[in-house]
Amino acid sequence: MTNEPKPRIGILGAGQLALMLAQAAKSLGLDIVCAGQPGDCAEQEARVLPVDLDDAAAVAAFAHQVDLVTIESENIHADVLHGLPLYPNARAIGIAQDRLLEKRFFHDCGIGTAPFAAVDSLDDLQEAIKSIGLPAILKTRRMGYDGKGQVRLRDPEEAAAAWTEVGGVPCILEGMVNFENEVSLIAARSRTGKIVFYPLIENHHREGILRTSIAPFIDATLQHEAENYLTNLLAKLEYIGVLAVEFFVANGHLLANEMAPRVHNSGHWTIEGSATSQFENHLRAIAGLELGSTLSHPTVMLNCIGTMPPEAETAAYPGLFRHDYGKQPRPGRKVGHLTFPATERKAIADWQHRLHADL
Q1: How far apart are the first and last CA of the chain?
Q2: φ, ψ of residue 45 in degrees (nearest 5)
Q3: CB-based burial of residue 354 (10 Å sphere; 0-12 exposed, 13-18 middle, 19+ buried)?
Q4: 3-state helix, strand, coil in the chain (%, to 5)
């Protein structure tokens, strides 16, 4: 594509992932337009057009103004996405946004998961508790992220209250996994089918929200296993762009938790820690450009939840990279992240304590 005009890329959504995609687009000379609302944080780097992402006609009109479309969140109804010049495709997004379809797809691809059962009524939930056992987690099939739409069950007597708490919407009941680690693998697949992988990432969550990502998680056997799984997933989905899959490490093997058909929070470290960030490689993939190198060095990413630390405090740490999304402070909200070379152990420990990370 070197002699062809570069495509104008439309992003459905204008939050922090769109912001970082727009930042990465600058070095590639790509024009980014976001579908969002006034005041969304991507306005710092790109044009944001007011678009109701639940309105198929409005999304289609937006798509006519660009050459191709991508997403920053899978929580856009797949029906709105059909017929768009979309990367990744609507089928991949539709599977990822429904936990039941996602789990079944993992099994179809030969990838193990926690035990699960579909739940469409209180009776279903009570039967699922009998078959799966407790403790378990009741999860809404759609629109759950950062711990939302989830209720933990420890006693059968909690079933009715849990069903009420999730609003009686379609769910799955998922058995608890006795895991040693939570890891993720991020890959990018180009239009020609070439795939590049980042190293496995060790992730630490608290209250359903990612707090810390450490790269790399060094285990050659698990790296090979994860790469084989993603190679299969990417091919079956005819996928173009970045895909992230979260796994549990249990008994020396990987169990898939969920996948994200987009750039992923656990890959934010790649901005400073890799030769090519996940954001740049996603844009390269969907624009038909050559994928960049994923050669990387050990890096730690800390999410800032609720508020950003004062600039004066972060400036005192020369090895720290500060990413402020420009969001208003709010409890439980991802407002930014910090990255460090993994060798800066004292600074990392200090900021984990300051940010109330769970390590």
Answers
A1: 46
A2: -130, -15
A3: middle
A4: 30, 30, 40
Q: Which of 48-62, 147-161, 225-239, 318-332 has the lowest mean pLDDT?
A: 147-161
The Cα-based distances of 260 to 3, 114, 145, 290 in angstroms read 33, 18, 11, 22
Task: Tell which residue, 170, 172, 208, 203, has the closest CA to residue 185.
Answer: 203
Q: From CA 54, how far away is CA 65, in angstroms rounded? A: 18
What pLDDT was estimated at residue 358? 47
On the question of a cis peptide bond just before residue 199, with omega within 30 degrees of 0, the verdict is no
Distance CA 244, CA 230 (A): 9
Structure tokens at 208: 């359903």
Position of tokens 């508020």?
Answer: 307
Which residues on neighbouring strands pair with residue 9, listed in sequence order? Answer: 32, 68
pLDDT for 77 beyond 60: yes
The residues that bridge with 171 in the sheet, in sequence order, are 119, 140
161-195 per-position pLDDT tens digit: 999 999 999 999 999 999 999 999 999 999 999 99
Name all domains of the chain by residue range, CATH numbers in brackets: 8-86 (3.40.50.20), 115-175 (3.30.1490.20), 181-354 (3.30.470.20)
* Residues making up the chain, counted from first to last: 359
What tokens appear for 242 in the block? 């970045």
> pTM for this one?
0.95
**Which structure tokens are listed for 245?**
């899959």
Rounded to whole angstroms, the Cα distance separating 121 from 140 reads 12
Is residue 359 over pLDDT 60?
no
Rg for the chain (alpha carbons), in Å? 20
Residue 142, both tokens: 């759609």
Q: Which residues contact 261 (CB under 8 A, 6 or more apart)?
A: 71, 74, 88, 92, 93, 96, 239, 241, 243
For residue 123, give every residue at least 6 positions away whose Cβ sits within 8 Å of its Cβ, in sequence order, or none: none
Q: Considering only CA atoms, which of 192, 292, 196 is closest in space to residue 243?
A: 196
